[in-house]
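# nightly structure sweep
# worker-07 picked up a monomer target from the shared queue
# config: single-sequence mode, recycle default, output format = structure tokens
# input follows
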Amino acid sequence: MHQTQAVRPTPWAESEDIRLLQGVATAMVRLAETTGTESLSRPYPEEAQQALNDTVLACLLLKADPPESLPKLVEWAALRPIDRWSITLPADAIRPGSLLLDKATRQPTQLCYEWAVDAEESTALSERPFMGTAATRCREEEYPEAYQAFRSLLIRRPVLTYRDLVTLPSADDGLLGPLGELLHDIYQPAPASYLDRKRRIYTTCGRCRTLLHPTTTGGMWCERRTCQDRDSVRPGREFRADDDGGVHLLIGPLRQWVAAPGILEERLARRLVKCGADVELWPDYGAYGMRVRLPDGTTLAVEHKDWASPALLGRRAAPPLSGPPYDRCVWVVPSARLHEQPTYRMVFERYRPSPSPELISDRELVDTVRKAAGPRLSGVDTTSDEPAEGLF
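# output follows
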């Protein structure tokens, strides 16, 4: 499929081309989580076979050359920008040059996860089933500390050994409480594609602590954009493949939708406190990201959203359905994201179904807190002592 992407005002839910793209994205995520996209093995996930069938049919209807096999479809997703597919999408739904898979590793890009989770039937690819279960159990036992500890664990330790999985639930502090048994469901044996086969070593990212993926050129790749966009990936802790019973990695949906934004939420929360705000992370068992009470008494419900696609983010715009009361609901995106995509806000506004939440940058939120604090911050150093990536 080499035709130029067209634009037509087809309703999102009625577009066969949108469903095709969602299906291929879902297939790529499923493959990465099961057989791996580099060395496919049968049986293929049902979503992958269906995506191949749908793509072949679409090509045949357009009299275009279809992918001959699932490995060929994977190659398309890694090498052929979506705007070069013969599909018609709404305006600004895709930035030119966007790929579903990283070229060097064949791992899903963030955009791939976003298109996969946009599909209505993709709840298994989101964090909601897991975090919903955790919230329900903690609420039933009136144990908010366990929920906080559980969420912090996912953010700060996306890689565990089997020994960790066994010992953490019964650790002396006992903070995980009723959630300890969930660890075996959400931490799975680390995929062999992350393994340095010569040294039999898994290496974590020195910034976000998830596993780094070896590339075909001998480098290392991190799935987080804010780590990968630095001058170079910073290697962190190394694990031998057989360390303490084997290495386990947090499942993709929780790395993508809990751990990655959680790093930025914790960092932003520390900055806001330093500027004079009172901050509560994940209030009411994760009803929303953080409750920020400004020095002037205004209360904000804040979610940190570092999405590649402003269109897909805009489609999900909605205020929290529960949680502590607030005066304003805002979604915060990194200033760097707005800088690299000057039309980001405009596209978000075009696709949003409701007027709330507001979309602001992390820099704007910090400035809002500073203004609310007024003279009280006079003489106080509010510059950040955090690492540069992911702040402004």
